Every structure is written in structure tokens, then in C-alpha cells.
Amino acid sequence: MQRPKNSQRSSMTEAELARLTNTERVVAIISQLMTTVGCAINEIRSINENTKLLALNARIESARFGEKGAAFGVVAKEMQGLSGRTALVASEMSTDTKRSIEQLMSLISGNVLGTRLADIALNCLDLIDRNLYERTCDVRWWATDASIVDAISNPSPQTHAHASKRMGIILNAYTVYSDLVLVDNQGVVVANGRPEQFTSLDRDESDSSWFRQSQLSRTGDEYGFQSAHGSLLADGNPSLIYSCSVRTMGQANGAFLGALGVVFNWNSFANAIFSGLPLDDVERQRTVAYIVEHDGSIVACSKPIPSDYRFPIQRYPYLMSGEEKYVQETVEGKDYCVAHAKAPGFETYSTNWHAFLVQQT
Length: 361
Fold this sequence. Notes:
The chain is an alpha+beta fold. 48% of the residues lie in helices and 20% in strands.
């Protein structure tokens, strides 16, 4: 008996499977299983149709032989009954198998992918918090350096030049910073570590949040912070600025004299974080990663976006509240998995940022 044309089976080659992500491989294998089961059910139906035809022919022949063919007619009738029940079982098997496999595929593509992306988002924020915690330590330590304190306590071209030289030496050892700036108690820059690159000398930073936070701090153990912005201290490049008050004799409880600001190169760091996400080339093309403030302001994005774009956090209150790690949604006919994590914090520091990974599925 020939196999029906619609039961011809095809499967992906090993090379084709190798080009897929782990999740996609599982889905592909399950799809192949569904195809195989479907082919088997089609063959059962084909055999059943032949059986029904044979039963019909048997009943016709039975009728021709009259009483002599009566027994054969009973067998033919039973064959027809059996064929009907087989058709019913095949139909139920087809429906149940399709439903079960669809549920399994949905579970895999949802739970496995969503949980994985949420874990990647959490790891991304953990790396950021751990790294930026070091920035708070750096600025509090350097604000007590003798050359820094002396340049504010005894202002002169010589002390300012010495502080600038000292900050330049620090910058040579820390490639994550664009510059270090020293301001007096009025918020005016008196020295910076890279004067040949950034002309920030005499710039008034009194209205900047990083200076005001330092000015209002109670001790030298506290630090100020200004989130990602285009800082004029770094020629308008995206920067984070950490600050600490400079105090008399470099003592934590000394009188406020000025402030030290460390200008962190945010773009370089964010790009390194995004490029290190554990996504293969296929996933990376279909995924956009966002670092977001609590109000939806974009701190960083893995792909170019309009400067005024804000992440639509109002669509994901259950994610922001921590009730869910991910959601599946359809936008303009395309399916997406949206995964979320909130900054876990490290030691005494946390950005309190949110990370979203949006992947087209």
C-alpha cells in the first residue's frame, strides 16, 4: 500500500538546528514531533478508508451469495463498525495531540524564554550596580587626597596646577572616567584632570545636582550623584557624575570647602554591558535592551532610539511592581516577550534602575 502524499515526513538537518538558539531548537523539535504524529494519524485514516472500502465490497459480495455469504456479511459489518471507531479515535488523537503540543510550545516559548531574559536583565543591572558602587568609593577616597584639599584650602595657581596634575595621574590609571573636576564652595571649577582635552576651568557648576548634593551633605562619607546626561564637563557626551565634599584637613566631619566630581564615561560602559549580554547573533538581532529610570526615562538602549523616547512603563505595571518577570504580547501583528528586572543593589549602593529586554518571538 502506498503512503499518502500528505504523510511524507521532513525534518530539519543538524546544521539547520545548530543555527537556532536552544529555545528555538526545542520548539523546532516539538514541531517536528507534531508533524510526525500528524503523519501517523493521516496514515491511520488512509488505512481506515481502505478498510471501509474492503468492508463495503465484502458486504456486496455477501449479498450476491445469499445465505451462503451471510457469515461473511456479519464479518463485513463488524469491519465497518471497527472502521468507524478507528476513525473516531484518530480524530480525537489528532485534536488532543495538537492541543497538548501547542500548550507545550507556548509553555516553552513563554516560561523558558521569559525567565531566561528576566535573568539576563537582572544580571545586567547587577553588573552595573557593582561597577558603579566602586565609583562612590573612588570619589570619597580621592576627595581626601592632600593635593585636592590643599588646592581648595590654599587656592593659588601652584596648588591648582598640582591638583590638576595629581588628577591626571589618577585618570591615567582609570580609563572609565572622562575627567575629574574640582570646584570651590561656590561651585566654580578651579582645576580638572584633563585641561588639554576639556576646557572646564572656571565653569559654574553651582546649579548642577551633583554639586548641590555635595554642598548639602553632612559628612565626607556621603556622596552625590547625577544620572546619565550630556555633560558640558565632557563636551556634551553622556556621563554619570559622582561627587563628594572636600572638607577641612580632609576629615569627614570638617567644614565644607568645595567638591570633587568624577565624570564617568557612560556610553563606553553601557555599550560594554550591552555587548556582553549572553545572546547569540540571531537573538541579538531580535532583541532590544533598555535601562530605564523609575519614570520611564531611558538611561541607555542597545539600539538607536529618538532622543525624546520614553519607555512605556505604564503598559507594564505588574512588571514594575515585581509581580511578574515577563509578559507575552502582540504589537502590530508581531509577538514579543518583554522581560524585566529591578536593580538589586550592591553593598550600600543601588541605582534603582529597571532593565527591560524586548525580544520578538
